[in-house]
């Protein structure tokens, strides 16, 4: 999965970009605790990294 697709889904669900350093973007949701860090730009995110992003965002893993 592309990092752009993950970022698009996060923004659609209300996550806000709050910063990031280098090639990573950090997102925070106003109603949820914690944050999600997405490596960007990446054509393909590694499976383990993608699974961790899903867990942090509260999404069900396929």
Structure commentary:
The chain is α+β, with helices and mostly antiparallel strands and 62 residues long. The protein has one domain (3-57): Metal Transport, Frataxin, Chain A (2-Layer Sandwich), CATH 3.30.920.30. 34% of the residues lie in helices and 23% in strands. The protein is built from two helices and three strands, in the order αβββα. It has helices at 3-12, 47-57; strands at 16-19, 24-28, 35-39. Strands 1-2-3 form a three-stranded antiparallel sheet. The protein is globular and about 30 Å long. The model has no long low-confidence stretch (mean pLDDT 93). Belongs to the HicA mRNA interferase family. Pfam families: HicA_toxin. GO terms for molecular function: endonuclease activity; hydrolase activity; mRNA binding. InterPro entries: HicA_mRNA_interferase, HicA_sf. Keywords: Endonuclease, Hydrolase, Nuclease, RNA-binding, Stress response, Toxin-antitoxin system.
Features:
62 residues, alpha+beta, Metal Transport, Frataxin, Chain A, 3-stranded antiparallel beta sheet, 3 strands
